[in-house]
């Protein structure tokens, strides 16, 4: 989506590592159905937005949102350009809005 927006508005695209999706560790790439079947307790914690739950080898939603918020806070201190377009996943965006 970011690439299409950049092309549409004739601007450069910067993929900012601080805005990447939450790391799901062992569950990365696993379908919701597979996670629910194979790891029901982990799925429950993950899908109920337990912000402190950390998937094995991943990061908690709380940690991911803090990483993003830290970056977003730095934007206002280091304004170089006047406009930004941010593309985030719904889960990450909701977590940031809660802070």
TrEMBL record:
Entry keyword set: Isomerase
Entries under SUPFAM superfamilies matching the protein: Phosphoglycerate mutase-like
EC numbers, comma separated: 5.4.2.-
Single annotated GO MF: isomerase activity
Pfam families for this protein: His_Phos_1
Keyword Isomerase attributed: yes
Record's protein name: Phosphoglycerate mutase
Organism: Klebsiella pneumoniae IS43
């Amino acid at each position: 989506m970011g690439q299409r927006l950049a092309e549409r508005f004739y601007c450069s695209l910067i993929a900012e590592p601080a805005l990447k999706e939450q790391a799901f560790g062992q569950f990365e790439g696993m379908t919701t159905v597979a996670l629910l079947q194979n790891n029901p307790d982990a799925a429950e914690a993950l899908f109920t937005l337990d912000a402190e739950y950390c998937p094995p080898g991943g990061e908690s939603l709380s940690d991911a949102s803090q990483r993003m918020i830290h970056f977003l806070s730095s934007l206002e201190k280091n304004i170089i350009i006047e406009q930004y377009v941010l593309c985030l996943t719904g889960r990450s965006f909701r977590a940031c809005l809660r802070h």
